[in-house]
Amino acid sequence: MRRKLYLAAYDVRDHARLAQALRVIRGYASGGQKSAYECWLTPAERRALQREMAGVLDLAVDAFSVIPLELRRPLVTLGAAIKPADPDFFYFG
Q: What is the pTM of this model?
């Protein structure tokens, strides 16, 4: 299954849930900062990420979005951005 690039971003109001959300998203992310991460995901991994985050967040006050990024267009960054160096494969264990 081919992976697609997504931007996964969250806004979590509680510090304990924030720490849990950060652990979940770092398991899928290839790069990012603060509360926005680049993730190369298969459709099944995207659904798993959404399920895991739904189990962590209080959906009445927290927010989470997974936005597909279009690779046909050039990626433009501003500031001191560093392009992520991704390996040829990912291990999810």
A: 0.72
